[in-house]
Amino acid sequence: MDRKASTLRALSRYENKREADRISGAGDEEAAAALTPKKPRRAKSSDPNAWTEHQVQCSIAVVLNRLGLLWCHVPNEGKRSVVAGSRLRAAGLKSGVPDILIFSSAPNKPEAHGVAIELKRKKGGRLSETQKDWLRRLEDAGWYAVVCHGYDETMDEIKKLGYIK
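-> structure tokens emitted (165 positions)
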């Protein structure tokens, strides 16, 4: 059997099925769902005070990368399946770890072993008990640990630490 004949037969079977579905009304729910417009994505606000914690995190990531700092983000946020959560915990994921860990020495805090920044959105962000515990333990270990609410406060902290002159 050549390829062209096989393709034409498959196309004919598809068209016959679609015609049968059209006559019987089967598949109308699927078609309606496909034609229903999706909820539009919310555009990133130009006002940093209205940004979500994720938007602040992404913007700060750009800054830290451009500065060439040795840093990372611990992806503790988000919803995961039970299996995925179990696997991550088995691999060492800890809840409450600050959002940003900077390993490059801070020019204005040379005594600090590192910098830990817990990001919160400008309005409504609160620390959990495990987050408070992590910040306290990191400070005890010689780290500079701070909570920043929103993009502007985080940028002010990065400038205060001497990463940006």
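The chain has two domains: 3-35, 48-160.
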